[in-house]
Amino acid sequence: MTVLRSLLLFVLAALAEIGGAWLVWQGWREHRGLWWIAGGVLALGAYGFVATFQPDPNFGRILAAYGGVFVAGSLLWAVVLDGFRPDRWDLTGAAVCLLGVAVIMYAPRGT
């Protein structure tokens, strides 16, 4: 159950951070206005809180592992919302990052 909770928190964190950054991008670069930017800032703040609910107590480990989730999640976000078509190297890189997440977060550790 702890691994499932952790994975769900990573997904939620990815939605908050990637979504927040996308809203800021849309507000500023696509001239959609300050409300989009404000929504993005709130979502980015929510990301910071979501990360604190991870069961592992080590900030550095959580943030390092989340980096891999962010890579894969960003590509997926781009596919769904921006019509981006990743090539095999994008997909390979994302798979390597997710493998890194699994090793960092879920490999057995000695006491």
Automatic annotation (TrEMBL):
Major localization class: membrane
Record-annotated membrane-spanning stretches: 33-50, 62-79, 91-108
Source organism, top-level taxon: Bacteria
Intracellular or extracellular location(s): Cell membrane
Keyword Transmembrane among record annotations: yes
UniProt-listed InterPro entries: EmrE-like, UPF0060
Keywords: Cell membrane, Membrane, Transmembrane, Transmembrane helix
Topology class, membrane: Multi-pass membrane protein
Family label: Belongs to the UPF0060 family.
Record's protein name: YnfA family protein
Organism: Plantactinospora siamensis
